[in-house]
Design brief:
The chain is an alpha/beta fold. The protein has two domains: 152 residues, Aspartate Aminotransferase, domain 1, CATH 3.90.1150.10; 249 residues, Aspartate Aminotransferase, domain 2 (3-Layer(aba) Sandwich), CATH 3.40.640.10. Helix content is 38%, strand content 15%. The chain has 19 helices and 17 strands. The strands form five sheets. A seven-stranded mixed β-sheet has the order 2-10-9-8-7-3-4, sandwiched between helices. The chain has a four-stranded antiparallel β-sheet with strand order 13-14-17-16, covered by helices on one side. Strands 1-15 form a two-stranded parallel ribbon. The structure holds pyridoxal-5'-phosphate. The site of pyridoxal-5'-phosphate (PLP) has 13 residues, from α6. Pyridoxal-5'-phosphate binds next to α6.
């Protein structure tokens, strides 16, 4: 196919025939026109929904109305303005549980700054001891990887379950072996993403029950899954769930949550106390009592003026229909993957290497690729991003805080990576490139969400097709160090 602006309508008709379910989602085009019109007014092609979703105009209006109308004080008091804030925030807290179909008898919602802060709460408080085990999949986000440092500091073992290229799904046989290897009295925590933010792979939620049956506590990172999939905590009952709300509804930033089963929360041992987390603390008595439930985990003052915007945002997604969003994203993802895989140079070599499943089953709308020239030399992902910027296309490049999946895809071995940490001192970026020896160190990620439409994906295809028969510059030339 030739991707020219004047051929988009024809391509759209062909797409509709191939993906008839897209017709069920046409209301989202109206929504984009009324609520996300700034995208088209500015000619922006937004393709980084896994980085952060976009907010509707109506979310801002509703939130500003609340702030303009009310007088709100710090909720740590019991004066009228403080109670007004408490009332709004507790309403939002209840709604978060309702949105995820989590029974308040079983789960609590702890507001945090983001998903990472929710994960840190689990990591620092999980009662790891020598001989305990933390197992986690290779494709976890760094904020889940980081829990291994808490585990090891307390003498527990951290063990990774590999993902297998090219689809980057888990080696389930290895997972089963590890889940079966428990000893009596051992505390065991298993952590994995419901959807990988690197490959878009969706892992089986059946593992939750399976791991529970063998005595494991289970942490499922729903940060990349929840924006385009229904999370039903009446069906799936992990012990800990982390989320960032800006990834679901675009606004507000700075608020996430840990949804924890009450029984699992009772096992956690906080390493400190802070304002707001205690019922009583004494300087001279040198003691404190931690508050029950979520209060014991919310350090200091919660983001009380923005928390009402979480409820507004989730209600907007609920009214739009998460199933409709899912349907649209999967139609567009399926088409885009097919198109990308069909791009060939004149010598027949593929332009794209896809890092993740080709099929749309058990995957989300996150598509990670690298582009290669006719000689198999890869186009530096930073160069690709810089060129996309010139077309107003917002992509994400690098390793997306998910080093394990990237290492597997780019054939980086344990020996290669250990080499990077051989010295106590920080490795320079030049030294790092020598270890990489011309191999890709990152990739290009395209991700879709609530306001995505066919034109976004078509414009990306026009951009990608521009690399057909082009020669790559020397790899690494445009690289700069990235924060992983
Ligand atoms: C799967 C996954 N987990 C956790 C996070 C961390 O989210 P935050 O940066 O909001 O803490 C992200 C962010 O990209 C993610 O994609």
């Amino acid at each position: 196919m030739i991707y020219q602006p004047d051929q988009m309508d024809q391509a759209y008709q062909t797409f509709l025939k191939a993906y008839p379910a897209y017709q069920n989602t046409l209301a989202l085009d109206d929504l984009r026109a009324t609520q996300y019109h700034r995208l088209d007014e500015q000619g922006q092609v937004y393709l980084d929904y896994t980085g952060g979703s976009l907010y509707a105009d109506s979310q801002l209006t509703a939130h500003m109305d609340i702030l303009r109308r009310g007088v709100f004080g710090n909720p740590h008091s019991s004066n009228p303005t403080s109670m007004a804030a408490t009332q709004l925030d507790e309403h939002a807290r209840r709604y978060v549980l309702e949105y995820f179909n989590a029974s308040p008898d079983e789960y609590v919602c702890i507001f945090t700054h983001n998903a990472s802060a929710a994960l840190k709460l689990v990591g620092e408080s999980y009662p790891f001891e020598a001989g305990d085990r933390y197992i986690l999949t290779f494709d976890n986000h760094n904020s889940v990887n980081g829990i291994r440092e808490f585990a090891r500091a307390k003498g527990a073992e951290a063990i990774y379950v590999p993902v297998v290229p090219p689809d980057l799904r888990i080696d389930e046989a290895r997972l089963r072996v590890l889940l079966n290897e428990t000893k009596s009295g051992q505390k065991t925590l298993f952590a994995y993403p419901a959807q990988s933010n690197f490959s878009g792979v969706q892992h089986s939620l059946e593992w939750i029950d399976e791991a529970h049956a063998k005595g494991w506590d289970v942490l499922v990172d729903f940060a990349a899954f929840a924006p385009t999939n229904r999370v039903d905590l009446s069906r799936w009952k992990p012990d800990f769930i982390d989320l960032s709300f800006y990834k679901i509804c675009g606004f507000p930033t700075g608020i996430g949550c840990l949804i924890a089963r009450k029984t699992a929360l009772a096992k956690l041992r906080r390493p400190w106390f802070a304002g707001g987390t205690i019922t009583m603390a004494s300087v001279q008595g040198d003691g404190y009592y931690l508050a029950e439930g979520e209060a014991g985990f919310e350090d200091g003052t919660i983001n009380y003026l923005n928390i009402p915007a979480v409820e507004i945002g989730l209600k907007h997604i609920e009214a739009t229909g998460i199933e409709t969003i899912h349907e649209r994203v999967m139609c567009l993802t399926g088409w885009m993957i097919e198109q990308l895989m069909s791009l060939r140079h004149s010598n027949g070599k593929p332009l794209i290497r896809l890092y993740g499943p080709v099929e749309t089953e058990m995957r989300g709308g996150t598509v990670t690729i690298n582009l290669f020239d006719p000689n198999g030399q890869y186009f530096n992902f930073r160069e690709v991003e810089a060129e996309a910027n010139l077309h107003n296309i917002s992509l994400r490049t690098g390793c997306f805080c998910n080093p394990g999946a990237g290492e597997i895809m780019n054939n980086l071995s344990e020996a290669d990576m250990r080499e990077c940490f051989r010295n106590e001192e920080r490795m320079t970026f030049e030294q790092f490139l020598m270890v990489m020896d011309g191999r890709a160190t990152g990739a290009v990620r395209i991700s879709l969400g609530v306001a995505s439409n066919f034109a976004d994906v078509y414009r990306f295809m026009t951009f990608a097709a521009g690399y057909v028969d082009r020669q790559a510059e020397t790899a690494g030339e445009l690289m700069t160090a990235e924060r992983h």
